[in-house]
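Budget justification aside, the reviewers requested a transparent look at the raw inputs and outputs of the sequence design task funded under Objective 1. We therefore reproduce one unedited record. The lines immediately below are the structure tokens for a 469-residue chain.
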């Protein structure tokens, strides 16, 4: 039986000291309020271990006393994986584990602790003359542990891969307090199961990632960036194939967005001016890295060829960093601006790249049948098949009435995604938001394998209970 709340708080303070425990409900608020404010459940306490040894001691004690733990990093997750589910848990925030252990830019790796803010990791790499190419809208508050635990993607997956592909090794504290020391900088290690991949993407259900060795890359001499008008997602796909053929791995971003999202940002003052060349139903934000010694103009030359081939109707190429910043703001604010327009129903889905136009066409039609007048705002990482398929409420509709039809809209989108061989969670994870959906859609054998791994590493079920599985 789990200890009473007072006994849990006393036990935590004995382990971590007064400074390592927050038990006041008001002081806990920021740790319990997730970005979308969909889950509002209290916790017994928030624990703030100061180092790995303290976290090990905490896990040993919690495992022995069957105290459920919620791993938390920057609390930026969008599916409720980092906040309580039942109210009897202890949130364990690892923000104090934020040291940089090693940086070797020449060899292409660095080792940092899980509490380091992603933006700080970028600065550490850049100070050493290298680049850590994982860029998220929440990088000013997201931390390495959460980024890896959710296998975050971001805007440069196309060229560099998601968090899993950028991770060489991890250190992790298991549910029983043992330390898995899997930190290494090896690109080849064929000595059995690749255990780091159990923790990357596990959303804290198997243990706490406490540190990671991640890949670094040379800093480009410049980025060539353009905001391109295309008539349709089909034309955007053809443009992607062409740019990839012309620029190869130098093509680091290929982001799709519609005019509706740009208009919303202009209407609500999120953009100082229209960054596009002219009005178009669809746009592509494309970016190509130019490395040292490279010849400038590769993107512009490819776009001129695309214009001649009828794939592009207009384009503007960034002539300054201010231009580039404005173009990226138009992309990164697509989700944020919808909250200013009223309620929105959001989906993070992926399909094979060639099926993206079909996803957008059929998904839009399916939801419009369920909610007439709904305003679609699909956008995102077309270059890797990940679309944030969002819908704003019809003009004048009551937000609560609109959100009451969320399940119907979800079912409509997910039917299309499944039929196209896609995933209902491309980069945000499962958490508690999509747990029941995973049971319904995941291959039963895969679920059995996942449950077996969970039982082996966390037999008492104290690690983020009720999440994912």
């Amino acid at each position: 039986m789990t200890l009473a709340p007072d006994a849990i708080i006393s036990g935590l303070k004995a382990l971590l000291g007064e400074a390592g425990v927050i038990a006041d409900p008001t002081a806990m608020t920021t740790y319990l309020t997730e970005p979308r404010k969909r889950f509002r459940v209290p916790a017994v306490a928030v624990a703030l271990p100061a180092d790995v040894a303290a976290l090990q001691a905490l896990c040993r004690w919690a495992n022995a006393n069957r105290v459920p733990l919620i791993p938390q990093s920057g609390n930026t997750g969008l599916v409720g994986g980092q906040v309580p589910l039942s109210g009897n848990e202890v949130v364990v925030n690892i923000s104090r584990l934020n040291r940089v252990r090693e940086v070797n830019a020449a060899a292409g790796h660095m080792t940092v602790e899980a509490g380091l803010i992603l933006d700080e990791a970028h600065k550490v790499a850049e100070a050493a003359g290298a680049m850590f190419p994982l860029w998220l809208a929440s990088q000013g508050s997201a931390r390495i542990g959460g980024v890896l635990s959710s296998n975050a993607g971001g805007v440069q997956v196309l060229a560099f891969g998601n968090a899993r592909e950028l991770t060489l090794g991890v250190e992790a504290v298991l549910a029983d307090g043992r330390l898995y020391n899997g930190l290494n900088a090896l690109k080849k290690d064929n000595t059995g199961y690749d255990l780091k991949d159990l923790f990357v993407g596990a959303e804290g259900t198997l243990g706490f990632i406490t540190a990671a060795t991640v890949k670094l890359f040379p800093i480009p001499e410049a980025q060539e960036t353009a905001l391109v008008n295309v008539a349709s997602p089909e034309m955007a796909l053809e443009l992607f194939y062409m740019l990839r053929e012309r620029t190869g791995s130098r093509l680091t971003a290929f982001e799709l967005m519609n005019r509706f999202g740009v208009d919303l940002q202009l209407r609500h003052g999120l953009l100082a001016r229209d960054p596009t060349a002219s009005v178009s139903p669809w746009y592509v934000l494309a970016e190509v890295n130019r490395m040292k010694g490279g010849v400038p103009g590769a993107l512009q030359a490819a776009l001129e060829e695309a214009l001649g081939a009828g794939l592009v109707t207009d384009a503007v190429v960034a002539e300054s960093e201010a231009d580039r910043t404005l173009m990226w703001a138009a992309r990164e604010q697509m989700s944020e601006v919808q909250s200013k327009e009223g309620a929105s129903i959001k989906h993070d889905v992926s399909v094979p790249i060639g099926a993206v136009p079909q996803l957008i066409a059929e998904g839009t039609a399916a939801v419009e049948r369920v909610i007439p007048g709904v305003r679609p705002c699909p956008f995102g990482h077309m270059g890797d098949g990940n679309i944030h398929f969002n819908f704003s409420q019809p003009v004048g509709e009551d937000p609560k009435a609109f959100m009451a039809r969320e399940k119907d809209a979800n079912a409509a989108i997910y039917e299309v995604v499944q039929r196209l061989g896609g995933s209902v969670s491309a980069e945000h994870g499962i958490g508690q938001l999509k747990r029941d959906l995973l049971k319904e859609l995941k291959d039963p054998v895969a679920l059995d394998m996942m449950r077996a791994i969970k039982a082996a590493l966390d037999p008492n079920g104290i690690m983020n209970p009720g999440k994912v599985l």
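The mean pLDDT is 95. The chain has four domains: 5-93, 100-218, 222-336, 342-427. Computational costs for records of this kind are itemized in the attached budget.
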